[in-house]
Protein: Ribonuclease J
Organism: Halorubrum tebenquichense DSM 14210
Amino acid sequence: MEIEIATIGGYEEVGRQMTAVRAGDDIVIFDMGLNLSKVLIHDDIQTERMHSLDLIDMGAIPDDRIMSELDGDVRAIVPTHGHLDHIGAIGKLAHRYDAPVVASPYTLELVREEIDDEGKFTVENELIEMDAGGTMAVGDRCQLEFVNVTHSVVGAINPILHTPEGAIVYGLDKRIDHTPVVGDPIDLKRFREIGRDGVLCYIEDCTNANRKGRTPSESVARNQLQDVMHSMEDYDGGIVATTFASHIARVTSLVEFAEEIGREPILLGRSMEKYSGAAERIGAVTFPNDLDMYGHRKSVDRAFKRIMNEGKENFFPIVTGHQGEPRAMLTRMGRGETPYDLDNGDKVIFSAGIIPEPTNEGQRYQSEQLLRMQGARIYDDVHVSGHLRQEGHYEMLDALQPQHVIPSHQDMQGYSGYIDLAAKQGYKLGRDLHVSSNGNILQLV
Ligand SMILES: [Zn+2]
């Protein structure tokens, strides 16, 4: 059986992931993502109404025109998890394929919202829910399987396409976490079994491939957060925290520790409401009954007014703006645009790292400066990454023993650490270690 892999997007950047695998006459697409930084760099762009081709020209979504060079039928579109760089182009591209979107429950809930928000195209692809551990037939001779992985969002899986030539393992995005705060540990046992049966190709998340050592577990971030928050127990002014709205495990920890230190947690900002609301709806998490979430600007401002009236020392706002996004809640607080007044000595916890990208770095710097000018004290980087570092990559290669490896989710510089470590494991560039770029097709069999 002929096996081809089209590396469509996310092979020259972190963002707009898309990969297609052709096994005989059947094709499966993994991820259809958005590169948000290519959108944010323009002022006030509304992507909802934009045409796919304009977004492709901006480098914001994958250029899927190369799909016409693959000789077969698309059987499924499979987003691995709910981050925008993996699902953010579904509204723009999925309607071009007569195939269902197959995803885990939380991811599918977010895909539904993407499709609802889409203002240019009508997306009528069937939506099929499949849990980790589930399988489905792809054509007559292949099978799709979901293996549970741990990442900074709930419901992350690695999809496997079992073909007569061996398994294709699509390894984006994950870290190896045996003690996640929400959800199950990574299913390394299943990866080892698949490795024993024979892996033809492993496509790997290289986000942190240049970092030595091991990515810590989410429980480490939870301990760190508990330590930071308990140190503030006696402070009688304002404490504000920000994190990735989709990072439900972290939001859960923030809510819990807020109550431990005698403050009422409250989620503020559009994406806080969106992601936490979706997690509650599908039963991935149970928040306290009285936890308030507000998304719309007016209701957020009303909540801020209530906090100011009843005393800042009684509340713990968890807000958007961890990357210093200009329109997010924390940045607005820094600019003094909300009814919440920051006083000298008030605490701001960034439970997030800076995504290493010049736009983010600049915006985050500005946001912190604005907060400091109001007197705020910053607690930075109370966080662990959701991506494997080098020791995790060694572990995965050891478990899977793939014949071919394709690094992904980085640019050329970002791949270098992975190329080095794969070479140490006996892989050779150009022979069984394939560095690709966007718009390539690799023929493996
Ligand atoms: Zn991700």
Remarks:
- The longest helix spans residues 358-373.
- The mean pLDDT is 96.
- Residues 81, 83, 151, 173 surround zinc ion (CB under 6 Å).
